[in-house]
Amino acid sequence: MPLSEHEQRLLDQIERALYQEDPKFASSVSGRRMSKPARRRRIQGAVLFVLGLVLLVAGIGLKALWVGDVPVLSIVGFLAMVGGALLALTSIGARGAKETEEGTPGSPQQDKDKSGDNGGFTGRMEERFRRRFEQE
To answer: What is residue 35's predicted lDDT score, i.e. its pLDDT?
Structure first.
């Protein structure tokens, strides 16, 4: 359902205010596509996971590769699956996570962290909302 003109103007106004107040956050949540290194890591993780799954199943069927009663190839396959899953999952928030968590030196976020009041994202948003109402 499309927005009315009034709703569209309000949305544009909110977006402009967000870019003015916190351009770093606004650029990190904009609808950009994933960077190439992150996409590459996800693909590598998925391929490693599938390879590990093949080794896991093949290790059960190949009794010649067992050491005693332990299917060594299956264990290697399981470890490859875990490594592939970790590689793919850690690529999700790798880019830009440090930028939003750490502040620039002297930034309000870093000053809050030093004072012991770590309200996180919602705390910052509440503080900005309070400041806006005090200005008007």
So the answer is: 64
b or e along 57-82 (b: 16 or more beta carbons within 10 Å of the residue's beta carbon)? eebeeeeebeeeeebebbeebbebbe
The residue written with tokens 């930034």 in the block is 107
Q: Is the pTM of this model over 0.85?
A: no
Interhelix angle 120-135/108-115, rounded to 10 degrees, is 120
Distance CA 120, CA 75 (A): 41
Q: Which two tokens stand for residue 37?
A: 């290194």
Residues 6+ apart with CB under 8 A from 95: 34, 35, 37, 38
Determine contact, residues 46/88, Cβ cutoff 8 Å.
Answer: yes
Pairing, β 70-71 against β 66-67: antiparallel
> Cα separations (Å) of 132 from 15, 41, 98, 126?
15, 42, 28, 10
**How far is 105 from 131, CA to CA, in rounded Å?**
22
